[in-house]
Amino acid sequence: MIDAIQSVGAFSTIRETEGAGPASSASLVMPGAGTAAPQAGSFAEVLGNMTTDAIRSMKSAEGTSLQAIRGEANTREVVDAVMSAEQSLQTAIAIRDKVVTAYLEIARMQI
To answer: How many domains does the chain have?
Structure first.
């Protein structure tokens, strides 16, 4: 069931955003923290990793549900797995909505 989403993992291979400018290699410093944040990689890598984690979470929830049907998992494990998958899905939906909103704002700009 989740295998159809596997093609979304192809986004992690996009390398077009790497090295696009000085912002891609700069590390962020929080005011008052005094230490640099660790490098997170390119935007495409971050989205790819998040997509992979969400798919893994959904597959885990699906597997745990099937184990419960066979009597191999208790209700608590199923609820935990499904709630984790739901949280991952809600995060993916929120990010998608933000990207679409940003695209629409850019499209409305007058040149």
So the answer is: 1
Task: Compute the radius of gyration of the chain from its Cα atoms.
Answer: 19
Amino acid (one-letter) located at 84 = S
* Top-confidence residue, 47 or 64: 64
- Which residue has 């077009």 as its token pair? 16
Locate 35 and state its tokens.
């230490």
**Torsion, Cα of 88, 91, 22, 33 (10° steps):** -90
CA 24 to chain centre: 19
Question: 35 pLDDT band (50/70/90 cuts)?
Answer: low
pTM of the model: 0.57
Average pLDDT over residues 22-32: 46
Residue entry with tokens 């597997």 = 63
Residue 56: which domain range?
2-108
